[in-house]
Write a structure and sequence with these properties.
Layout (H helix, E strand, L loop, with lengths): L1 H13 L1 E3 L7 E12 L14 H12 L6 H4 L7 H9 L12 H7 L1 H20 L1 H7 L6 H7 E2 L5 E2 L1 H11 L7 E3 L15 E9 L2 E12 L4 H18 L3 E15 L3 H8 L8 E4 L12 E4 L14
Parallel strand pairs: 7-8
Antiparallel strand pairs: 1-2, 2-8, 3-4, 5-6, 6-7, 9-10
Length: 312
């Protein structure tokens, strides 16, 4: 994963410090590209532990067209909880302590974080067991899964972009229109979080499938290792579905940034030596029937996890 280390180093050496919506502040650059040859191993970061289970369960959630966090929390995947929690604490039904600007306050106030963690735990446990509560407060709006699998077009026409791109790859592999977009201007304001990884294009050369992602905004320390692994896994899944081998994953960035409260952790990561990349093993199921147990990560060895607070 030298490519990822090079990105972090490039930002540290060339980045501009900027204010951001979280109040934490970032150092970042605009415009950067990494390339990963998927024939050389699965690009899961090894210089800090990265949970493949979280990556795979989130991707399957997208592919099923799901937009409710209940599915994820039942698999102990909590990476989308903050946005659903925001729905809950802003409601008239919420009777707990004041959670205004909880994302910023939880990173700056240790006493507040105790209350925040307690309220979040209560929220997650209720989401798991209370379907009506989850339907009301676990819904994130028309985020990735909706756009990928059920984009609403003219006159209510539903467009399944993933199915369409698989069909086009099979029928016309050399087409220049193998595109899936999550950035829907008509619905972006209804989304809990506007799509960061917003546009992808597939490309066939010989018997190999490649994918290029355009990511408009990238939290390089926490988010990007997940994004790399997620789209690499998507290439594996679609390659199997279309009877192709995997080629490259090309990762193109708009605003690529490191939060200022992550810089110590970034330097710790850069001091570590990357380990051998693992491999992916898939069951023979269709991409649309895949479950978590159908995707196996083989030979993953990493350095210890590095803790860092998410900026919400």
């Amino acid at each position: 994963m030298k490519q990822y280390h090079d990105l972090c180093t490039y930002i540290l050496e060339n980045g501009e410090q900027r204010k951001d919506r979280t109040g934490v502040g970032t150092i970042g650059v605009f415009g950067y590209q990494m390339r990963f040859n998927l024939q050389q191993g699965f690009p899961l970061l090894t210089t800090k532990h990265t949970s493949f289970k979280l990556v795979a369960s989130e991707l399957l959630w997208f592919l099923k067209g799901d937009t409710n966090v209940q599915t994820l929390v039942r698999q102990n995947n909590n990476i989308w909880n903050e946005w659903a929690f925001e729905n809950w604490v802003a409601s008239d039904e919420y009777q707990g302590p004041d959670m205004t600007n909880f994302g910023i306050r939880a990173t700056q106030d240790a006493d507040f974080k105790v209350h925040y963690d307690k309220e979040m735990t209560t929220f997650i446990e209720r989401l798991k067991v209370d379907d009506s509560f989850a339907a009301k407060y676990g819904e994130l709006g028309p985020v990735y899964g909706r756009q990928w699998r059920a984009w609403e077009g003219k006159d209510g026409q539903i467009i399944d972009q993933i199915q369409n791109v698989i069909s086009s790859l099979k029928q016309s592999p050399h087409s220049r229109r193998h595109i899936v977009t999550a950035w829907n201007p008509a619905e972006v304001d209804e989304m809990a979080l506007p799509p960061c990884h917003s546009f992808m294009q597939f490309y066939v050369q010989g018997d190999k499938l490649s994918c290029q992602l355009y990511q408009r905004s990238a939290d390089v320390f926490l988010g990007v290792p997940f994004n790399i692994a997620s789209y690499a896994l998507l290439v594996h899944l679609i390659a199997q579905e279309t009877n192709l081998e995997v080629g490259e994953f090309v990762h193109t960035f708009g605003d690529a940034h490191l939060y200022l409260n992550h810089l110590e952790q970034v330097n710790e990561l850069l001091s570590r030596e990357p380990k051998k990349l693992p491999e992916i093993q898939l069951s023979s199921k269709s991409i649309f029937d895949m479950e978590l147990e159908d995707i196996q990560l083989i030979g993953y060895e990493s350095h210890p996890r590095i803790h860092a607070e998410i900026a919400v």
